[in-house]
């Protein structure tokens, strides 16, 4: 699995989101929400069914130092990595588990969202674009806080 070099391609989304400064992430036990835009009382973004996430550096000024820059990772936007070294690392790390199977990682994809100051990396089988009302966002946060009490 993943013997070829990585290939990074930009993903075209249904909207022309501005991948610059403002974004935020909510990562639950099984879902990662990337909030990208607010339009009146609705927030829009990307949802990944995953808990495998990296968020932070490098920013756009140091992005050329990212290990995937030489394979096509750009400065702003959403990208998908084929032949992902991070998925390969996840497989290798999991091999110490007594019930490990490479099949658990079948169909997993590596997504990278690049912004001015941060980037988000997620491995997930898919993603979807979403619209969420301010009330739904508030309910999501309240639900996650309630989980801390259990």
What does this structure look like?
The chain has 150 residues and is α+β, with helices and mostly antiparallel strands. The chain has one domain (7-147). The protein contains two helices and nine strands. It has helices at residues 85-94, 134-147, and strands spanning 7-10, 24-27, 32-39, 42-48, 52-56, 77-82, 109-114, 119-124, 127-133. It has a five-stranded antiparallel sheet, with no helix packed on it. The protein has a four-stranded antiparallel sheet with strand order 2-3-4-9, with helices on one face. β3 (32-39) and β4 form a beta hairpin. It starts with 6 loop residues before the first strand and ends with a helix.
Topology:
Layout: E1 7-10, E2 24-27, E3 32-39, E4 42-48, E5 52-56, E6 77-82, H1 85-94, E7 109-114, E8 119-124, E9 127-133, H2 134-147
Antiparallel strand pairs: 1-6, 2-3, 3-4, 4-9, 5-8, 6-7, 7-8
Short key terms for the protein model shown above:
single chain, 150 residues, alpha+beta, five-stranded antiparallel sheet, four-stranded antiparallel sheet, 2 helices, 9 strands
Beginning-to-end CA distance, first to last residue: 40 Å
Bulk shape: globular
H/E element string?
EEEEEEHEEEH
Number of strands: 9
Tally of individual helices = 2
Low-pLDDT regions: none
Strand order of the largest sheet: 1-6-7-8-5
Please estimate the helix content.
Answer: 10-25%
| Total number of domains | 1
- The proportion of strand residues reads 35-45%
Largest sheet: 5 strands, antiparallel
Mean pLDDT: 93
Radius of gyration over alpha carbons? 16 Å
Which class of secondary structure composition applies to the elements? alpha+beta
